Fold this sequence. Notes:
This protein has 409 residues and is mostly helical. The chain has helices spanning 15-22, 29-50, 60-70, 77-92, 102-114, 118-131, 138-154, 158-175, 178-194, 198-214, 218-234, 238-250, 255-271, 275-288, 292-308, 312-323, 329-345, 349-365, 369-380, 394-405. The relative contact order is 0.07.
Amino acid sequence: xxxxxxxxxxxxxxxxxxxxxxxxxxxxxxxxxxxxxxxxxxxxxxxxxxxxxxxxxxxxxxxxxxxxxxxxxxxxxxxxxxxxxxxxxxxxxxxxxxxxxxxxxxxxxxxxxxxxxxxxxxxxxxxxxxxxxxxxxxxxxxxxxxxxxxxxxxxxxxxxxxxxxxxxxxxxxxxxxxxxxxxxxxxxxxxxxxxxxxxxxxxxxxxxxxxxxxxxxxxxxxxxxxxxxxxxxxxxxxxxxxxxxxxxxxxxxxxxxxxxxxxxxxxxxxxxxxxxxxxxxxxxxxxxxxxxxxxxxxxxxxxxxxxxxxxxxxxxxxxxxxxxxxxxxxxxxxxxxxxxxxxxxxxxxxxxxxxxxxxxxxxxxxxxxxxxxxxxxxxxxxxxxxxxxxxxxxxxxxxxxxxxxxxxx
Length: 409
């Protein structure tokens, strides 16, 4: 099991923000944005402990927060609005009432997660879990636990993610909330998947799907089907993976769930060697998706296609795009692997060896055992053959027609 430890928010240190700031240039727009988030959380902490005096407009911390918010980049308009809203709400209230600011904190955490900043997002959701009154706001309390689990899993803190999902399941069970119980169980299954026990994860998700169908929980079934597709893909079952994911979309996946499912389909088509079909799906998503995570996954898969068909122009295009992306540990390793494979394809073995080395070190540091094994196998291989760009197979074409009928392609 992953032995990395997540520093919980009850310490009120917000170390994730401090660590993030340490890696940024103080003159960068990202520095002001991250600093504003840290100051806002610390002000909420002090407001909760000491009362309304700490949010007086003349006090030092509110003044510093307004100054940091004012220096945030234009691209952070949504975040700026939320942070200033939290400050204005605290200053407008006669008493410290956490229930008034918790929804905005939740929105802030979701923005961070949407942009792939899972480490600091977990800090925000951890603050919500710690500060909110479970009896008064049981849904937000439970959702915060689920979001902590998700963000920690995405950032490879697998042991802590497992514990967060266990807390979430216990809360949902106390409240008799069947849907949130399903979400917690799916999260736990995904932790098992990321730890490498694919048969057990497969069994857990199949059981969840059966249970959802019996209880007419369509949302839970959609979620579990999409994630079962990922398990099937890792078990080298791409046709099953594709079928599970198309079924999830046909059942009515929406929003980010839908975008993730479409991105997964692009990846499965790449694994199947259906590069023409994959490009049709992925280029459309990269151009139209409003979700950073979905666009980034599409770009990674388009990079993978460029490597397999030895298209140096496309390889350069998507490599450049991904230089600007904020990546989770598993996606960072995937990009390094594809860059290494591309360097080998295009004859730069020295660069390939360096990139494989960086990928291996990063995978080891984040306890990504499956990636470490894959990297070692790839390093021992020679230069790969260029893949044939074949005509889309009838079965895959039928799958694309089903996607189109569901409005997803």
